[in-house]
Amino acid sequence: MGGGDVAGERRSRQSAWRERANDLLSSPKDPYGWCLVAVTSLCLRRECRRRKEIPAWCLVAGVVLITGCSTGGIGHALARAFAAESCLVVATARSLSSMADLGGDPSSFFLHQLDVLSDESVQTVVSTVLQKFGRIDVVVNNAGVQCVGPLAELPLSQLESTFNTNVFGSLRLIQAVVPHMASRKKGKIVNTGSVTVLGPGPWSGAYTASKAALHALTDTLRLELGPFGIDVINVVPGAVRSNIGNSAIANYSQMPETKLYKQYEEAIRARAYFSQGPKSMPSEEFAKRTVAAVLKKNPPAWFTLGPYSTIMAIMHHLPLCIKDFLLRKAMKC
Ligand SMILES: NC(=O)c1ccc[n+]([C@@H]2O[C@H](COP(=O)([O-])OP(=O)(O)OC[C@H]3O[C@@H](n4cnc5c(N)ncnc54)[C@H](OP(=O)(O)O)[C@@H]3O)[C@@H](O)[C@H]2O)c1
């Protein structure tokens, strides 16, 4: 047997221990279970100390992989909130420096670069995490980009890149982790939608359409992955404080000037910051309540939170003429 086989066998044995420990922790009535948990964690601790890895007890609460964890955004707050629930968080972002503050706590966070547009980047992260920790319990597709501009003049490349990040980026990571989760008959996939889908208005057509596509994919995935023991959750934020407005405006400022919509310039720019008003929910509060919902034994299929989530849910059921009237007023169109 080669060295790689031995290492592989040891890894799968460790992974089986961890899984067993987790199963037993979720069935506290079993007294033999608790003894086994104690013995298992002692063995794991010893093994991890020997290999100078993260202490095993961190692994029992779950390994959570999150995309788009730059400081100031929802992903970063989610990373901290999952860590506060004793999860080991694989925090990822396009650049490590954008989440450098998480680096000081290696027992809670493992940082890795990840660009959801790249197959190679996604595969590298998933295989590194599986090799190092033996499992991925929760994947949070948080990375996303807002895109503002009138659809009639929006460069198609902008529409494409919005879909590439928000839709195909999410699906890319899902396809990379599903084989692993399906083999364990266990896992949770969290996609980040948006309440804007419930009342699509002017100036953010590309973004809203991409999130609508993600909502649809999420609904299908929930049914298709159910038989493999994988929960799929649509987290639908209302207005949550983050960098989303600044990023959208930075992107918009690089687009060619509009011809037909010059008079709406101010309204278009304001749309980028629509979710960033004084009443927007702090990302920490959003993250704490989201994590509580995701970590439930039976997590909800749809979880919405933040200002506008109730209004948009009502809006969704209004007749189109009323919906249009309200959106024209709000978006100055
Ligand atoms: N804030 C809200 O009110 C709100 C409302 C509804 C939905 N959402 C959704 O919530 C999620 C988080 O957004 P946010 O509000 O926290 O905005 P944010 O602060 O701008 O965070 C977005 C994150 O996505 C990352 N990202 C963008 N493209 C990426 C790529 N190709 N690969 C990997 N990461 C990438 C960004 O990285 P960089 O820092 O490198 O750009 C950033 O870390 C998004 O899906 C967004 O659509 C937010």
Describe the structure.
The chain crosses the membrane at residues 54-79. This is Ketoreductase domain-containing protein. GO terms for molecular function: oxidoreductase activity. InterPro entries: KR_dom (IPR057326), NAD(P)-bd_dom_sf (IPR036291), Sc_DH/Rdtase_CS (IPR020904), SDR_fam (IPR002347). This protein folds into two domains: 1-53; 56-331, NAD(P)-binding Rossmann-like Domain (Rossmann fold). The chain contains twelve helices and seven strands. It has helices spanning 3-25, 31-50, 56-60, 74-84, 119-133, 156-184, 205-225, 244-252, 265-272, 283-294, 309-316, 320-331; strands at residues 63-66, 88-93, 109-113, 138-141, 187-192, 230-237, 302-305. The mean pLDDT is 90. Residues 67-68, 70, 72-75, 93-95, 98, 114-117, 142-145, 165, 169, 192, 194, 237, 239-240, 242-244, 247, 275 line the site of NADP nicotinamide-adenine-dinucleotide phosphate (NAP).
